[in-house]
Specification:
- This protein has about 500 residues and is an alpha/beta fold.
- It has three domains: about 250 residues, 3-Layer(aba) Sandwich (Rossmann fold), CATH 3.40.50; about 140 residues, Orthogonal Bundle (Isoleucyl-tRNA Synthetase, Domain 1), CATH 1.10.730; about 70 residues, no CATH class.
- Helix content is about 45%, strand content about 15%.
- The protein has a four-stranded parallel beta sheet, sandwiched between helices. The protein has a four-stranded antiparallel beta sheet with strand order 5-6-7-8. A three-stranded mixed beta sheet has the order 12-11-13, with helices on one face.
- Strand 5 and strand 6 form a beta hairpin.
- Helix 9 packs across helix 10, helix 11 runs antiparallel to helix 12 and helix 11 runs parallel beside helix 13.
- The longest helix has 21 residues.
- It is elongated and about 95 Å long.
- It binds one RNA strand of 76 nucleotides through strand 3, helix 1, helix 5, helix 7 and strand 12.
Length: about 500
RNA sequence: GGCGCCGUACCCAAGUGGUUAAGGGAGCAGUCUGCAAAACUGCGAUUCGGCGGUUCGAACCCGCCCGGCGCCUCCA
């Protein structure tokens, strides 16, 4: 039984979808005026995994994630560059898809844009005015917070408390300082749409209400986003939506924690952020491997907690993944023995159950990963006792299947060793220590598979002749090229990059 | 000023009233190996920021204190 922590109630609750076997979920996407940073990546990934797990659990998931494509920051950016807002938003929507694609984030079933929902937005604002919850002032329209009884129920704040610490500018035209804009009359040079209140554009919060209701209905199951959206964005969405319909809006509110840098929130305003593309560019690893490292790192902490970003943490993720892919590599090898085959189903069953139990507990991905690690360890033991070729295939498939829920373990190829690049220096150390690249000049050209196998054959020959110094020399040579040799019990060797 | 979060071993990180406080990374020791690597085995917090309290029993509940952070303005 799945339970989810609901911000609205402040506790974990059993999850029941409104309609059986279907989950309708809305997640606040990004405002497309700049590249995404790791914080955006975490949010996108968390909800991607939630979606995947719901699907795995047998639900059909209607997953709506919006793009905010009308906004002050977009207008500002367009002016700076001397281009249209459309140019800016198109560019960054494309960048979003590229970056999230590298992370393996699937596209939502529906990805609406604010600019394509003006009719719905205007209608919703009209309804709110009609119901006496909103009032027009000189081309703007404001939502009147005092008219909505439950204002503050999501963020657990009272209007009086909000006022006391309010840093908002006092606007004489507002009836209450916390009243917020549903519609903003446009200034010259700004994108605008015709409305009963004159030309203008929507306020930030109204678009999500309008799009969520348009695509998911007035009441739906899950609404998600980053912690920082709880107030005012989601609080306002609730006020608008419930105010207009008189019905519950979203039933479960899910919020992910922040990515931090040195224990501080990473954000645009603080300037301490890393963009997703920057991380991929700087990474020594091929794109798909860097993506999996990042993904593992982001899922190794429960989604509600803070997550500190560091090179060290990313490298730890890589180390752990190496252990998995090392096993997967061995699972591809052919074998005669089948001594431990009969124990495999039990190991897999236990893992699957424990994995689901963890995910059912508010998507506890760190525990789910721990269970996969336990299965890794168990399968390694079985492997040393003897698993048939068929059993190996089956267990690889199980890792692939459970891993897919987290978006992991889908590769057939993996790279284990930092590759010496042209110009890097390498010292002739023993074995794996040669990863430390200091000393000699590394090769301009990477070794081909044939060259590697040629070297291994020579080494095998040397070993047979008990010429161990030559064998070690060959191993060191390969190591300096980023190739690690592992001798198997039968005398042959496997290698990995 | 208001609301809220966090502090678990060298590092990351689960656990939130009751068996020996998951798991990973790093380290050390051992098995295997010509030597390695990988894998496996063992070691590693008598203790969960501190001090009190509630309880038969607390890392988990309550109070106070210390340290760090977030929201209340745009922000995933």
């Amino acid at each position: 039984m799945l339970s989810i922590y609901n911000t609205l109630t402040g506790k974990k609750e059993p999850f029941h979808s409104l309609q059986p076997k279907t989950v309708r979920m809305y997640v606040c996407g990004v405002t497309v005026y700049d590249y995404c940073h790791i914080g955006h990546a975490r949010s996108a990934l968390v909800f991607d995994v939630i979606r995947r797990y719901l699907e795995f659990s047998g639900y059909q998931v209607e997953f709506v994630k919006n793009f905010t494509d009308v906004d002050d920051k977009i207008i500002k950016r367009a002016h700076e560059r001397g281009v249209s807002c459309d140019t800016i938003t198109a560019e960054f929507i494309e960048a979003y898809y590229q970056d999230m694609g590298k992370l393996g984030v699937r596209r939502a079933t529906n990805e609406p844009k604010a600019t394509e929902h003006m009719a719905e937005i205007i209608a919703l604002v009209g309804t709110l005015i009609q119901k006496g919850l909103a009032y027009p002032v000189a081309g703007d329209v404001y939502f009147q917070v005092e008219k909505y009884q439950d204002y503050g129920r999501l963020s657990k704040r009272k209007l009086e408390d909000l006022q006391a610490g309010a840093r908002v500018d006092v606007d004489e035209r507002k009836r209450h300082p916390m009243d917020f804009a549903l519609w903003k009359g446009s200034k010259p040079g700004e994108p605008s749409w015709e409305s009963p209140w004159g030309p203008g554009r929507p306020g930030w919060h109204i678009e999500c209400s309008a799009m969520a209701m348009r695509h998911l209905g007035e009441t739906f199951d899950i609404h998600g986003g980053g912690m920082d959206l709880i107030f005012p964005h989601h609080e306002n969405e609730i006020a608008q939506s419930c105010g207009a319909t008189g019905k519950e809006f979203a039933r479960y509110w899910v919020h992910n924690g922040f990515v931090q840098i040195n224990q501080e929130k990473m954000s645009k305003s603080l300037g301490n952020f890393f963009t997703i593309r920057e991380i991929f560019e700087k990474s020594e690893w091929p794109e798909d491997i860097a993506g999996e490292m990042l993904r593992y790192f982001l899922l190794a902490t429960q989604y509600r907690g803070p997550l500190n970003f560091s090179d060290h943490a990313i490298n730890e993720a890589k180390q752990t993944l190496n252990g998995f892919y090392d096993l997967f590599k061995r699972l591809e090898e052919k074998t005669e023995s089948a001594t431990a085959d009969r124990d495999l189903p039990g190991v897999m069953k236990r893992c699957r159950e424990a994995f689901c139990e963890a995910m059912d507990d508010d998507f506890n991905t760190p525990v789910a990963l721990a269970e996969l690690q336990r299965m890794k360890s168990d399968v390694n033991k079985l492997l040393s006792l003897g698993l048939s070729t068929e059993a190996r295939k089956i267990s690889r498939k199980e890792f692939r299947s459970l891993g897919n829920i987290l978006g992991l373990f889908q590769f057939d190829k993996w790279e284990f060793v930092d590759k010496p690049r042209p110009g890097d220096v390498v010292v002739g150390l023993t074995g794996v220590e040669s990863r430390i690249m200091v000393g000699q000049v590394s090769p301009e050209i990477e070794l081909s598979k044939e060259q590697i196998e040629q070297q291994i054959a020579e080494r095998l020959d040397a070993k047979k002749k008990k010429n161990f110094s030559k064998a070690d020399e060959i191993r060191q040579f390969l190591a300096s090229r980023g190739i690690v040799i592992e001798d198997k019990p039968d005398g042959t060797s496997r290698w990995k990059r």
